[in-house]
Fold these 3 entries.
Entry 1:
Amino acid sequence: MRRHSLTAQAVEAAVDTLLREAEDGPRATVSARHLHIYEDHVRRLTTESASLRAVLEAHTDVAIIRPTAQQTEA
């Protein structure tokens, strides 16, 4: 789960950076729209992953091992 939250943070940082860089150009609107689509996609994947993990854990006797913060940064 931590890996997904780091991904969402990275997308948010990229959105902020690209919006600042493209503030005055005609590509600013396109960039903002595309970045928000990507951000929504990451958020949706994070939710789906958490839901699938919960269902899998509920129907098996095996606990899902989540990576540590150190493993997700590698």
Entry 2:
Amino acid sequence: EEWEADSVLGTLLQKLREEGYLAYYLQGGFSRFQAECPHLCETSLSSRGGPSTALGPSPVVGLGGLCLGSDCSDAESEPDRDAMSCGLDSEGAPPPPAGLLPSFPVQILPNLYLGSARDSANVESLAQLGIRYILNVTPNLPNLFEKNGDFHYKQIPIS
């Protein structure tokens, strides 16, 4: 295992495994996966329904635009947000301009979406996408719809 136990990835993998889930990660990250399996990848520049037609590794919308804290819950209204509170993408670069950020939630796999705090608070969007199970990785944001019975939450606080 090449990840460090105190890293975000290490914490997430440890918590998922403690709960009895089989958890894996891509060794080499998305860049290596895209280089080896471009037919299985989409980028922000490719069409919604098909794979990327990249001439090499394409620019990818990373996790830099995903804010985990409540101070970053509305990226459009805070264009000059602090990079330290929102984080940088996996390459250490600042997030792409707001015009290139996807409209969350983004479908990662069938029935698996990646979204922000704002998305998790939008019950209409969750219902429209059929999202009923939510993994909350924030240390400070509540599971808003936990008591209504339509949503199931797993909270793994990562700071």
Entry 3:
Amino acid sequence: MNTTDKAVEIGTYFEQFISSQVATGRFASDADVLQAGLRLLEEQQIQFNLKKSELENKDAGLVGALDDQNPDVRGVSQSVTEAMRTLASVAGDSEQSIPAIPATKGLLRSQIAAE
């Protein structure tokens, strides 16, 4: 496996968090902590894509069923579908956007601004 060292600014909070994870013995190195975090992010992205695909498939089935019952519904259904897609692209998946450490969200922004 080809490894490359990269310098990334993560801020003092996360530097301390990573150090504490290594100090407790849960992880052997800083890199192991970062890799675990990236694995979780990757898993969340996979789950998001699966949910999105399932919803799109359900949506396509519902649109077809509604069109068969009432042709006037097609326009309304397409408008609702487009509005939902717009909201999803702007807001993202609300479950996925919940930070792993919500209590620190504001703290991190102020620390980043200070640094």
